Amino acid sequence: MAVTEKKPVQVYLDTVHQSLLASLAQRLGISQAAVLRRGLEHLAREVIPPEEDPAMKLIGLAGEDTDSPGDLSVRHDDYIIQWQAKDDGR
Question: Which of 47, 46, 66, 45 is nearest to 55 (CA)?
């Protein structure tokens, strides 16, 4: 997810959820806020159908008349290495 301006949100948790949040944060080595953000992202992936994901609107933007290789999604690393080598004069 893109990093944008963060705004505070107040959440009321019972002692069980407070303990769970603290435990997860400690186990993962991240802040409690990061645990909550990860949880929201996971729940969104579980609940929101993929076709409603805004990123899905990117598919096909280049159109069919493009000179990009048909296997770019699979071999992207190879193409980046080739491009970098060409840019470095190798």
Answer: 45
